[in-house]
Amino acid sequence: MNQKSKLIQDIVHSVLLIAGLISVASAVGYLFRNMGFPETNVVIVYILFVLLSARLTQGYIYGILASITATFAFNYFFTVPHFTFSVDDPNYIITFIIMTMTSIVTSALTSKVKQDAIEAKEREIETKALYRLTNHLTDASNMHEIASISISIISDIISCKAACLCIDENGFPEQSFIQQVSHNKQSYISVENIVQIKHRIEDLRMGYDIGVEFYDWPIYGQESILGVMRIPKENAEILKESQARLLRTMIESIALAMDRFRQAEQRMKSKEEMVQERYRGNLLRAISHDLRTPLSGIMGTSEMLMDMIKNDDPRYELAKGIYTDADWLRSLVENILNLTRLQEGRLVLNKQMEAVEEIIGGAINHIYRRSPEYEISVNVPEELLLIPMDAKLVEQVIINLLDNAIKHTLPQNEILILVEDEKELNQVAFSIIDSGEGFVTDDLPNIFQMFYTSNTRRADVKHGIGLGLTICEAIVKAHGGKIEACNRTDTAGATIKFILPTKEEKNE
């Protein structure tokens, strides 16, 4: 409404100005005629005032209006018969046409020069404002300081009390925004409903959002919205096109500054996380190496004691328990070492063509030494299967999966290793199938995550630390395969299936 009223006011002002200038030109023309000057001088006076009209008004339309008005005024006051729009001498028609065309051309040229001067001035103001903003933003050390500098300069240039609401890394507006309340004072004002502001900005269909108090311009970064520039409604409604263009350009500069700071912050955070991961890996590796030696000694000593004691001696079960627990700890240590190698990219695959039956046999023998009470069935194709793989690592995958199956299965229940040759897909599928309680549905998306453990295991089984399946996934993916888990549909239990390609991929 204010903008429309201002437009009407400008139109009325321009029309009255043209009427006044043409009136003055007519008065000067009367003076020249009484002084005996020829009519050509009067025509030049009208053209002069048409140029003044073009100079003092905005736009070409007013220059054209002044030109036509001047021609009719000359006809009315200075051609016979006077004070009418009739013409006795046809030669005046040519005079009117030449006068009108001359006035229009000269007023148009004047308007063009004036417009060019205005645009040059606007570009100068815009350049100075952007230089001032960019120069100050280079000294900012955080997001709030960027916001503070931005609203100070925008408020000064647009003559308003601008504000800025920063948005955090999770995409939510902060609880308060900073606003310029006076020339040298800024204050933080609480936000009533950050969720509503978030939804309004995300659902934006135009360049800005119109709120109750502010026009909100989002500050877009490369990947997300970094903040919201807020211009009071009463100032935003009367913004000129040049001011709106300058505001958008300044917001782009602010976005670049915020984006640089956010990226630098993320790089620093990533660097810190890498350092922490390196320290953690070194610590885990050092502890694991230090534990392996005493564990090997404990296992060897307990195995010697078992050989020296009869099976029916109560001390035999005690020695066997020591051996089993030490073997479990040794397996845990090996998993930790493998994990640190995988994380640091130091686990190098030594691929050779290996027989599937031999790999499975080696894994089962290892499990039988640890859990002889379990019976593991194997179902493999009759023909010899040779696959390019790192035998030691794939055997470790099968050992980890069998160990996981044992933790969930009673000794009298079935554990099956099923191998399928999928020739049409150039791959071999390995399935470890148990008869335990199966996976909880909520656990399935997370079981391959590091340090994730399920709470559904039997009470008489030791809990691991959630590394076995993570290592399995990393080894299988390093071989170019994939791994997945699901519950059995025919009975209780779970299936973990991994696939290895039968052909080595060649890098072209």
UniProtKB/TrEMBL annotation:
Which ranges carry the Histidine kinase domain? Answer: 286-504
Question: Where is the chain membrane-spanning?
Answer: 12-32, 38-54, 61-80, 92-111
GO MF annotations, alphabetized: ATP binding; phosphorelay sensor kinase activity
Membrane-topology descriptor = Multi-pass membrane protein
Q: Name one Pfam family in it.
A: DUF4118
Q: Which domain of life is it from?
A: Bacteria
Q: Which InterPro entries match?
A: GAF-like_dom_sf, HATPase_C_sf, HATPase_dom, His_kinase_dom, HisK_dim/P_dom, HisK_dim/P_sf, Histidine_kinase_KdpD, KdpD_sf
Query: What is the recorded name of this protein?
Result: histidine kinase
Where does the protein end up? Membrane
Which keywords fit this entry according to its UniProt record? Answer: ATP-binding, Kinase, Membrane, Nucleotide-binding, Phosphoprotein, Transferase, Transmembrane, Transmembrane helix, Two-component regulatory system
How would you classify this enzyme at the top EC level?
Answer: transferase
Name the EC number(s): 2.7.13.3
Entry's Gene Ontology cellular component terms: plasma membrane
Task: Show the coiled coil region(s).
Answer: none
* Reactions listed under catalytic activity: ATP + protein L-histidine = ADP + protein N-phospho-L-histidine
